[in-house]
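We read letters as residues; the fold follows as tokens. A sample entry reads:
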Amino acid sequence: MELVTKSLAVELGEHGITVNCIAPGIIETEIAGEFDIDPAFFSYYKEHIPLEHRFGAVEECVGAAVFLASSAGSYITGQSLVIDGGVLCEQVPRMQFMSPYTNTLNGG
């Protein structure tokens, strides 16, 4: 998705069109509760979210979308805004790709 965002930003920029991507982590929604995932995975994941060890709220994604669509974001294009409480900052060095839950995420 990031490469598509960058590519479209280049293609459409001359027409004054901005293209950005919002890349959320786990956001608490009704749909998120419907997935058949081991609850222990969610506990493990939360422990590794630097910002208050919690999942994001829908409002936190909405605010980012409103900002990017507003005049305040008019000179921002080709960017991916990660909204994950900082989990990607920690994932590689400390989460070890979420082991022991790697197989859960890969459908195994």
Q: What stands out?
A: The first helix runs from residue 2 to 13. Residues 2-105 form a domain with the Rossmann fold fold (CATH 3.40.50.720). The chain is about 45% helix and 10% strand.
